[in-house]
Design goal:
The chain is mainly beta. The protein is built from 4 helices and 31 strands. The strands form 8 sheets. The chain has a 4-stranded antiparallel β-sheet with strand order 2-3-4-5, with no helix packed on it. It has a 4-stranded antiparallel β-sheet with strand order 6-7-8-9, with no helix packed on it.
Amino acid sequence: MKQRVKVLFVVVMILALLFSMNVTSAFADDIDPEFFFSEIQQVGIGYIHTTFLMKDGTVWTCGLERPLPQTSIVTPVKVQNLTDVICVAAGLQSSLAVKSDGSVWEWKENTLPTQIGISDAIYADMRPANASSSYHVVKSDGTVWAWGYNSAGELGDGTTTNRSTPVQVKENSTTPLTDVQTVVVGDAVGTVLFLKSDGTVWSCGSGAYGLLGRTGNNKYAEQINELTGIVDISVGNSHCLALKSDGTMWAWGFNDYRQLGDGTTTARTAPVMVTNGISNIKAVGAGSSTSYALKTDGTVWAWGNDYSLGINAPYPGKALLTPVQINKLRNIKSVTTQNNNSVGSLAIGHDGSVWCWGTFGDKGHGLTNSSMPVKINEPTPSSGPVEPYQFSAVFEIDQGQIRFLGMEPFEGDENNLEWFLDFPWPLFMASLVPFITMVGMR
C-alpha cells in the first residue's frame, strides 16, 4: 500500500550546514579550500587567464601558461610574494596589481611579480587583446599613465608609438588629463574611457563602431560632450554604456543585437538614452553584444544577444530588446564582462561569492562555459541572524520503502524555489530517515 506524506519543514541555515553543502563549482573537485571559502573582491578576465583579488589582499589566478606548449591550470593558485592588493587587471599574457601603498606590480606566465616604476597608484586596467596589451594606471593625483600597445592612439600621448615605459595621458600636446577616478580599457579594438571626478567622460584610441562617442580615432583624450553627471562606465566589444547620477542609462556604438536598448538596430556614434524600461540601476556592464544592468536591489538584468545573457535562452543568438532578469543572481554587488570576442561574464555577490556564465572559449580561463550562472566559490558565512526557509516536501511510502517525490515551495515563493534547487538534499534527507521511518510504520 502506497501512502503520500507531505511534511512542512522550517529550516534555519547554520554554519555547520553551510560547510556541508555540496556546491556546484566551475572548477575541478580538488579546488584549494582557502580559495573556495574566501571572499572575492574583484575579478580580472584576461585573454587566456583569470585573476581573483581576495578580501585579505591576496591574489589567485588560473588559466593557460605560456610559452608553448600551453599548460592549463584549471583550479586557482595563489600568486606568490603578493599581498595587500587593492586592485587587479588581467591582459594578454600578464596581470597587474595595485597595492595599498600605491605600488604597481606585474607578472607574466611562470614569473613572480615585479614592481613597475609607478607610485601613488589607486586603480589600473589593461587590454587583454589578441595582439598585445596596453596598460593604464590612475594615480592619486588624478593623472593617468599608460604603456604598451598603441596602434590606435590608446595611450593618449599624441602618438601611435608603442611604449615600454609609462607615459602620461594628455588632452593635447601641453595639457595632461587630470581629475580621473576610473579608467576602462576596451578589449577588442583599443578604445579607452576615462571617468573624471566631475562626472564627465573622456575617450581616446580607436573610434571603430563609434566607441569614442564620435567619429574617427583620437591620439589624445577628448571629452564626450553628451555625457555629464556620470557615475559608471563600461566598454564592450563594439558598444559602450554609461550610467548617470539621475539613474538614466546611455549607450553608443554598434547595435546589431539591440544592445544599445534604444528600440532600434541603428549604430550610434554619439550617446543615446536607453529607453527599454530599465530603472533603479546601480552599475552597468557592456559585453560582446550584450548589456547588463545591476539594480539597487542586487538583481541583474540583461538584453542584447541572448546567446550569452545567462538565461538559458531557447533560441540562442536572437536579439532581445526587453531586459530580462538573470534569476540565479541575487544580492549582487558587481558584474564583470569579457569582451574580446568571447562572451563570458562574472558576478560578485555581497557575500564574496562569484558566479560565471556564458562562453569563455577554449582559451583556458579555467572557467566553465554555461548558459546559466554557476557558482565558483562558497565564502564563509558572516555572523548574524539567518532568515528561515519554509517548504513542503512530498514523500511516497510503499512497503517500508521511502521515495522522495519532490518539494513544493511554501506559498509558492519564487525566491524559496531558487534556494530549494541549490539545497543539499542528499545530506538533508539522510537526517530525516529515522523520522519518516516512524511515520511509515504507523
